[in-house]
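User: Let's play a game. I give you a shape written as tokens, and you guess the letters that built it. Ready? Here's round one.
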């Protein structure tokens, strides 16, 4: 496999120091939008106790509305960058992101908060593919594998950054403070992009708004079925209708795309085995990672009694695999092939999830941290080589589509991971509560508050904690099995050996 797909020179007249600044700047942009996915999970305890009083399904929608809009619009956003210029799209995305953060912070109810999250997701979708496309535009061909690996690592590290930054904000501020912090960060990055980034290249690209609408609606109906299942009943008409609607709409999307002159996403592109396997593998990896992010804050705050700040700090071991292993995984894939590196990564990721399922109230933090390191090593091994594979499978004029596919796989996988683990958690937790708390099962926070208000004593508190950890364990095991089985679908499309890139050396890439 080669990097012919991302070959080309930096634009004439680009100052060298500005070119060098682009890698950290574009990485910072992607850290901001992905960190928001992780940070909002830390706000769940405060949101549960706020005047908004969201239900368990409401909490899932608050987390997933941003992620799903983000993921669904990434491909058209990538095409928009190809057509209108990536710098302008990136600046527009940062402005929309800031506006969505401000709307979320001002929300008087759940509906407005969901609207703010929706707007923020639109901004994030504009930011992410443009950041990678601009980075590749200014990076010399021989350094592009390294640049892609660095950008990819930033998407993983962003989860830990979101936990650390979100924990710091929520330690002293109400939940609104988390969203208020996002607006000035986006504004500051916009100023740097305006100063440092070159004018983005433009290529012919068609905006398939009909296809984007069909695909977005299909994924929302799928998520509706998963999230609403425990509360409405899995056999209820709305839930069954959600699943049936998702299947129907995905079929309509495929038929429409096959006949359209310029489809948003031609299904035939997935005939390219490395691209197909890369997209599925990336989604699968982030499915596992963000399932952890959804439940981690609740476990550490409700079960272990950590403060928001300490909870954010406690996620730091994830950085080990994301930084240390991600820097070497592209070189390892060049040397040994994608298939063995991906298999090792997915097995390690599933093992980490399985070990996390053993955590309960008595688990020492050191053991919990070690389990997170194992999970992060799996992520670091498999995601960067898959991202390179996706980008290198397409020609340079379709770089926006490649980065959009890369990012869409992450966000849709993340949304599904949150939905699946959150659904298992909600169903099992409600069933494990003491009967006298059965009407207060919206979240662990509400159940613990109800037990305290009833002066139920330490015994009932322990029962609530046990119900939560038991439900969390079931969720982790479901996700671990899904990751392991999903990896079997990815492996056949990945190269075994001979993944050297022209103009690079293995030693350079893993140094």
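Assistant: Ready! My guess for every position:
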């Amino acid at each position: 496999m080669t990097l012919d797909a991302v070959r080309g020179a930096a634009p004439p007249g680009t100052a060298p120091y500005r070119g060098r600044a682009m890698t950290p700047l574009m990485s910072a942009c992607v850290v901001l939008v992905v960190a928001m996915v992780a940070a909002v999970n830390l706000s769940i305890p405060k949101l549960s106790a706020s005047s908004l009083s969201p239900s368990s399904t409401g909490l899932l929608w608050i987390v997933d509305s941003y992620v799903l809009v983000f993921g669904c619009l990434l491909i058209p956003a990538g095409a928009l960058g190809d057509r209108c210029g990536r710098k302008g799209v990136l600046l527009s995305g940062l402005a929309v992101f800031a506006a969505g953060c401000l709307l979320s912070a001002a929300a008087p109810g759940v509906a407005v908060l969901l609207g703010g999250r929706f707007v923020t997701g639109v901004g994030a979708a504009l930011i992410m593919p443009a950041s990678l496309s601009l980075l590749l535009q200014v990076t010399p061909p021989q350094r592009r594998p390294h640049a892609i690996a660095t950008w990819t690592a930033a998407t993983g590290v962003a989860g830990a950054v979101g936990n650390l930054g979100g924990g710091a904000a929520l330690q002293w501020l109400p939940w609104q403070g988390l969203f208020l912090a996002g607006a000035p960060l986006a504004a500051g990055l916009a100023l740097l992009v305006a100063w440092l980034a070159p004018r983005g290249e433009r290529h012919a690209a068609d905006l398939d708004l009909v296809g984007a609408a069909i695909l977005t609606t299909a994924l929302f109906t799928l998520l509706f079925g998963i999230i609403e299942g425990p509360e409405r009943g899995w056999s209820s008409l709305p839930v069954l209708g959600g699943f049936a609607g998702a299947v129907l709409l995905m079929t309509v999307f495929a038929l429409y795309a096959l006949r359209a002159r310029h489809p948003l996403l031609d299904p035939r592109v997935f005939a390219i085995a490395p691209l197909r396997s890369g997209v599925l593998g990336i989604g699968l990896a982030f499915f596992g990672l963000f399932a952890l992010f959804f439940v981690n804050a609740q476990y550490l705050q409700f079960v272990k009694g950590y403060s928001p700040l300490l909870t954010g700090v406690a996620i730091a071991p994830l950085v080990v695999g994301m930084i240390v292993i991600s820097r070497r995984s592209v070189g390892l894939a060049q040397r040994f092939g994608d298939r063995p590196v991906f298999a090792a990564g997915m097995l390690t990721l599933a093992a980490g999830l399985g070990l996390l399922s053993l955590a309960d109230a008595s688990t020492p933090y050191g053991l919990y941290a070690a389990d997170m390191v194992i999970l992060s090593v799996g992520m670091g091994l498999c995601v960067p080589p898959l991202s390179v594979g996706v980008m290198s499978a397409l020609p340079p004029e379709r770089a926006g589509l490649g980065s959009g596919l890369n990012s869409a796989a992450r966000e849709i996988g993340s949304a599904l991971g949150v939905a699946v683990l959150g659904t298992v958690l909600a169903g099992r937790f409600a069933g494990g509560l003491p009967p006298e708390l059965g009407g207060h099962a919206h979240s662990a926070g509400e159940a613990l508050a109800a037990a305290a208000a009833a002066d139920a004593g330490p015994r009932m508190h322990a029962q609530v904690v046990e119900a939560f950890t038991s439900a969390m364990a079931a969720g982790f095991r479901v996700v671990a099995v899904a990751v392991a089985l999903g990896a079997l679908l990815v492996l056949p499309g990945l190269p075994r050996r001979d993944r050297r890139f022209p103009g690079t050396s293995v030693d350079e890439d893993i140094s």
